[in-house]
C-alpha cells in the first residue's frame, strides 16, 4: 500500500508540476499579449490624438472664417445704412412716372399708325375696286350714288 501511496503522490506531483508549467507559460504569453495590446492601444491613442488635433485646427479656421464674414456683413450693412433712402424713393417714383409716360406715347403712336393704315386701305384699295360702294349700297339703299 505504501507503494501505491507513493505512486499516487508522484502522479499527483507530476500533475501539479504540469499545472505550474502551464500557469507560468500562460503568464509569459499573457505578458506578451499584454505588451502587444498596450502597443495597439498606444497606436490607437496616437491616431485619435492626431485626428483631434486636425479637427481642432479645422474648427479654429472655420471660426476665424465666420468671424471675417460677420465683419464683412457688418461693414456692408453700415455702408447701406449710410445711403439716403428718401432720395432713392423719389428717384424711383420719377422713373415709374417716366415709364408710364413712355407707355402712353407708345400706345398713342401705335393707334395712329393703325388708323393711317386703315385710311390708306379705305381710300386706295377698297374704294377703287368698288368694295366700299357695294357695302355702302347694301347698308344704306337709296343714299348711295355710284360715280362712273
Number of helices: 3
The low-confidence runs, each spanning 5 or more residues with pLDDT under 50, are: none
Percent range for β-strand residues: under 5%
Helix content: over 70%
Report the sheet with the most strands, covering strand number, pairing sense and barrel closure: none
Radius of gyration: 55 Å
Please characterize this protein's 3D structure.
89% of the residues lie in helices and 0% in strands. It has 148 residues and is an all-alpha fold.
Briefly characterize the structure.
The chain is an all-alpha fold and about 150 residues long. The chain is about 90% helix and about 0% strand.
Task: Jot down its keywords.
148 residues
How does the SSE layout of this entry go?
Layout: H1 2-81, H2 85-126, H3 131-139
Amino acid at each position: 500500500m505504501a507503494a501505491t501511496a507513493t505512486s499516487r503522490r508522484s502522479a499527483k506531483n507530476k500533475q501539479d508540476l504540469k499545472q505550474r508549467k502551464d500557469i507560468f507559460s500562460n503568464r509569459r504569453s499573457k505578458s506578451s499579449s499584454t505588451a502587444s495590446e498596450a502597443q495597439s492601444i498606444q497606436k490607437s491613442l496616437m491616431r485619435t490624438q492626431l485626428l483631434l488635433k486636425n479637427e481642432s485646427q479645422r474648427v479654429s479656421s472655420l471660426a476665424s472664417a465666420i468671424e471675417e464674414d460677420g465683419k464683412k456683413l457688418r461693414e456692408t450693412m453700415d455702408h447701406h445704412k449710410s445711403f439716403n433712402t428718401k432720395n432713392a424713393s423719389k428717384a424711383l417714383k420719377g422713373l415709374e412716372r417716366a415709364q408710364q409716360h413712355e407707355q402712353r406715347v407708345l400706345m398713342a403712336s401705335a393707334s395712329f399708325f393703325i388708323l393711317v393704315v386703315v385710311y390708306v386701305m379705305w381710300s386706295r384699295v377698297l374704294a377703287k375696286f368698288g368694295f366700299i360702294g357695294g357695302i355702302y349700297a347694301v347698308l344704306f339703299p337709296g343714299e348711295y350714288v355710284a360715280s362712273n
